[in-house]
Structures are given as C-alpha cells and as structure tokens.
Specification:
Length: 544
C-alpha cells in the first residue's frame, strides 16, 4: 500500500530537526508495516490550533483527493491538529476518500480515537495559553515589560525581558507631548514629524491616529502610561477567528488591567502627561449614538485618485461652495498631489453619470425584457398550479366511475364491496379538498406588454432625478441622500488632464447587482457586483 507522511512543529522556538526526527520515525513504521512511502508533507512553525495557513496539510488533502496514496502516517494525531473540529473534519474527509490515518504510537485511527485525541489536544493547547498568561502576569509583577516593544524604548541586551530608554525616540515622545499640551493638534504634530523625516513606530509616515490612539484600547502615544513609568498589561486579549485562522485583539475592561511601577522607564514628566490627558478629555470624541448622520450626499464615499486615501471637506470659498481635499494630505501631508475640488461639481458629476446610464436605450430594453420575462413566469406558475388540480380531479372522476361499475357487479354485503365503498369516501373527500383549492387558486394573469407611455414616464423621472435629489438634500431630506448612497459604493476623484482645472470621477456602485450585465452600457465594467465608470461616467467639470 502507498503511504504519505505528514509532519509539523509549532513555533520558531522549536528545533527544526523535529521534522527530520518525525520523518525518520514514520519511515521506520512504514517499513515495519510493509508500506511504501510515496511523499512527505510538512508544516514548519505552524500552530496546530487551525488548519488555515498550513500549506503542507492542504497539499496532502489535495493529493489524497487525487488518489495518490492509501494511508497517511503521523507521529501522533496532534501533529495533524490540536483542534477538535479540525481533526474530526480531516478524519471525515480522508475516510470518505478511502485514505486511512495511522499514528506511530497508536496504530490505525478510528472515530473514538479521533474524539479522544481531539479533546486532549485542544485542552492541552488551551491550558498552555493560560499558563503563558500566568507567566506574563508574573513578569509584570516583577516590574518588567510583558508586551511588545514600545516606541521610545529598546530591549536591554543585558537582561532578558527588560527595556531601556532609547534617547533618540524618547526626545520625539517628549516633543509630541510638549506640542500637544501647547495646543497643537495631532494632525499638525504628524505633519511636523513627517517634514522632519522622523521614522514612525510602524509604516512609512506618522498619522494623527498613531498619536491619538484609541480610548477603549488605551493605546497611542498620548495614552501610553509607560511614558510616566507605569507598566500597564492585559489591555487586550487575543482570540483566533475560526473562519480565517487569524488572531484578532479584543479590548479588556479597565478592571482587568494589571499595572506595575517602573520609574526608570519614565520619559514624560507627570505634570506634562496630566496636561495632555486633560486636553484629551476636553476633546473627547462624540459617542456613536450622538454622532450626526452624513452631512453630504457623498460623505464617506469619496477617495483620492492619486493616493487612494479618503477625502474630506476643506472649508468654503467666498461664494460658499464647499471644497474637498485628500485626507492623507490633511492628516500627514503625504499625498503627492493634494488637489482641492468643489464638492458640488463631484456630486453633479455622479448624479449626471447615473442618470445617463439609467436612461441608456440598452438599459430600457433590458428593463422591458425583464418585465416580459417575469410576466411569463408568473403566468406559467399560475397555469401549472391550476392544471395540476384539474388533472387530479379528472383522475378522481374516472376512479369513481370505475369503482361504481365494479360495485354494481358485487353481491350485497360482500367484503370487496365494503372496501370499494371506503375507497369512494376517500376519493370524495380528496375531490372536495381539490375543488376548494381550485376556487382559491389565482386566475391566470393576462399576458400584457409594457405600454410605451410607461417608458416615457420612466425617462421623464430620470430627467428629474438630479434636480429632485439635489433639492431634497438641500432641504435636509435624509432619505434622498440615503437612496443615492444605496447605489454608490465609492467615488474616486481624479484630475482631468485634458481640461484645465477639470475633474474625472470613477464610480463603484451596486447597479450591476440590481440590473445585471446590461446595467451600464456606457463602457462601465463590473467588479465583484460593483460597477466602475469609464468614459461613460466621466463628464468633465470646468472651473475647479
């Protein structure tokens, strides 16, 4: 019999020779059992807590499906998975493919062994996580840092698990607190740091969010209490998404946080830190339930065509027209082409583009075709229901006549006559029920064509679309803006190189999901249920 060997070890901290040792053990088992080894599959530094991201296991399952081998050999079942659900699924699928699992120390694997080993493996993994957290809690109690590297510090090469102040980064931290307490916004501070070409903690540039952080998670430069010599641990917990296998963080309540003093790590004076926290409390964001609805038709939908960042309002000109600008240019000054546009011009371009697409003759033809197809479907459905009932009534009538003829030929009081009489009662009951159903069944709808005046009315409504939506939004009608936002997913704004001061827009929306391939004939292509406008939805707007 042909066999395949599967091996795995969990983390980079384990010895890579573990793979070679497992392979040698499995080969020796195969030789004892008279199995030929067709292939070896491995996953190095991959957790058994999920099957996601384990290329070796995925290749093994693929080749098993192709029938390349009859047996899978593992050192132990926990090499395949330490999750009950995953291990049971692997066993079920391999069994369906006719492939047997054999463990070196346990022999042929059955359902009982899979259940027991899956339970033990998962308990072992969860118990290990609890012990790790217990160990990290002890590290914090000893005054050492249990988290990742914080900006302003570096690992102490002389003492494992301890931090020392990085003087260059500490000066940046002190600068941030000083400027913020003096009245500068996080956005202004980020601009200054980027202009000075100071490297951020992560990524390529400083952002306001890096400095501000998140209140619920207690992160960000301005919220980090390590800068005043206080270690705070257990702000978040990590959980694994069962659908993606990725670890995601969840904030813990403040009552679960663990703190310890570390005066030697203080960078920011207490009075300066307190002044920054007081200002942050004054500028605290509005709670979600108290936030306003989108103020403009395209709020949150606009994207910069140069760098892909969002766009936000940027004041008004003398005539009162609202300007919009790339948020990356405003937040950190990194957009290479921070062009300013007028919001009304972009809104008009979107409305005009949608109106032009919806009024295209091909769209109207598709509308008519779908209308007639639906009418035919409804007619056929209703007709089929009535035909079924009428056909069955005819069958009952024939059976009743046949039974009556047979009954007249029988001797009174005989057993066959009694059975036929009972059958006649059943048929009469069914007939009564079917006649009730036939009376309640809808009449066949007439096959009517769509009247030409309906199409004329449709075109007139589209012609008034732009004026109606614009007027509704101006009058504070939230439903008008919401209706258009249901059609549009994203609007990317570009310069128009062909016209001085012009603008081009690219719309990604939901029209294709509603109307299908014929939704946008003006050279609009579908993207995952969305539409992207090309020439057909790029009307130039002058005077920007």
């Amino acid at each position: 019999m042909r066999s395949a060997i599967y091996t795995r070890y969990s983390t980079d901290l384990q010895n890579e020779k573990s793979i070679e040792d497992q392979v040698a053990l499995c080969r020796a088992y195969a030789a004892r059992e008279g199995l030929s080894v067709a292939a070896v599959y491995e996953d190095r530094a991959r957790s058994g807590g999920s099957i996601l991201g384990r290329d070796g296991l995925m290749q093994l399952m693929e080749r098993a499906r192709a029938g390349d081998f009859d047996v899978v050999i593992v050192e132990a079942l926990d090499r395949m998975s330490r999750d009950m659900e995953d291990l049971a699924g692997i066993h079920k699928r391999l069994t369906f493919m006719g492939v047997e699992i054999r463990a070196v120390h346990e022999g042929a694997v059955n359902t009982v062994l899979v259940g027991l080993r899956g339970l033990v493996g998962q308990l072992y993994r969860e118990d290990g996580a609890l012990k790790v957290r217990r160990g990290m809690s002890g590290v914090v109690r000893d005054g050492r840092h249990a988290g990742g590297r914080a900006y302003g510090y570096r690992a102490d090469p002389r003492s494992k698990g301890e931090l020392v102040v990085d003087e260059a980064e500490a000066a940046v931290v002190l600068r941030i607190f000083t400027e913020y307490a003096a009245g500068a916004t996080p956005r202004d501070i980020a601009h200054g740091l980027n202009r000075a070409r100071i490297l951020p903690p992560r990524g390529r540039s400083w952002n306001a969010s890096t400095i501000n952080g998140n209140t619920q998670r207690g992160n960000g430069i301005l919220r980090n209490r390590l800068y005043v010599g206080e270690i705070v641990w257990n702000k978040v917990r990590m959980v694994k998404d069962p659908d993606t296998g990725r670890r995601v963080s969840r904030p813990n309540p403040e009552s679960a946080w663990q703190t310890a003093k570390a005066d030697d790590l203080a960078i920011v004076p207490l009075d300066l830190f307190a002044a920054a926290q007081e200002r942050k409390a004054i500028n605290a964001p509005v709670k979600a339930e108290h936030q306003r609805r989108p103020r403009h038709m395209l709020s949150g939908l606009l994207r910069c065509g140069c760098c892909g960042a969002g766009m936000s309002t940027n004041g008004k000109d003398k005539s009162g027209r609202i300007r919009i600008r790339c948020s990356a240019a405003a937040e950190n000054g990194t957009c290479p082409d921070p062009k300013t546009f007028y919001l009304i011009a972009v809104e008009n371009a979107v409305l005009e583009g949608l109106r032009a697409e919806l009024s295209h003759p091909k769209v109207l033809a598709e509308y008519v075709r779908e209308f007639h197809a639906e009418m035919r479907r409804l007619h056929a459905k209703a007709g089929a229901q009535r035909s079924r009932i009428e056909r069955r009534l005819s069958e009952i009538d024939r059976d009743q006549n046949a039974n009556t003829d047979h009954l007249l030929k029988q001797v009174p009081g005989s057993a066959p006559a009694a059975r036929i009489a009972a059958r006649m009662d059943e048929l009469q009951t069914e007939e009564n029920r079917l006649r009730i159903e036939l009376g309640a069944a809808p009449e066949l709808p007439p096959l009517i064509a769509l009247h030409p005046t309906a199409l004329v009315q449709y075109e007139r409504q589209l012609e008034r679309l732009q004026e109606a939506v614009t007027a509704g939004i101006a009058a504070g009608d939230g439903e008008a803006a919401a209706a258009l936002r249901d059609l549009v997913e994203r609007v990317t704004v570009h310069r128009n190189p062909d016209i001085a001061g012009g603008v081009k827009i690219e719309i990604k929306g939901r029209l294709n999901a509603l109307l299908g391939e014929a939704a946008c004939p003006n050279r609009v292509r579908g993207v995952w249920g969305a539409v992207v406008a090309e020439e057909g939805l790029e009307p130039p707007t002058r005077g920007l």
